[in-house]
Amino acid sequence: MSAILGTRLRREREELGITQDVLAKGVGLSSEFISLLELGKRMPSLETLTALADYFRKDVSYFLKEKEETFKIILRAEGLD
C-alpha cells in the first residue's frame, strides 16, 4: 500500500517540477518525511494524506487505489470507521 502511495506522490511532485522541500513546505511537513513517504517507508495520517491530495488537487483515493479496502484500513487505523 505505501509503495503505491509513494510512487504516485513522487510522480505528481515530479510532474509539477517541484522538490521535496517545496512540497513539504506546501503541506506543512518536513522534506525528510516526504522522502520517507515516497520511499514507501512511512504511511501518512489521514490528515496528511488529505493535505497531500488537496495540494495536488486529487482525490485521496488516487494515492491508495490499488485496493478499495485501503481507504477503510486508514480510517480504521485513525479510529474513524
From TrEMBL:
InterPro entries hit by this protein: Cro/C1-type_HTH (IPR001387), Lambda_DNA-bd_dom_sf (IPR010982), TransReg_Diox_bact_type (IPR050807)
Residues in HTH cro/C1-type domain copies: 9-63
A molecular-function term among this protein's GO annotations: DNA-binding transcription factor activity
One Gene Ontology cellular component: cytosol
Keyword field: DNA-binding
The name this protein goes by in its record: HTH cro/C1-type domain-containing protein
Organism: marine sediment metagenome
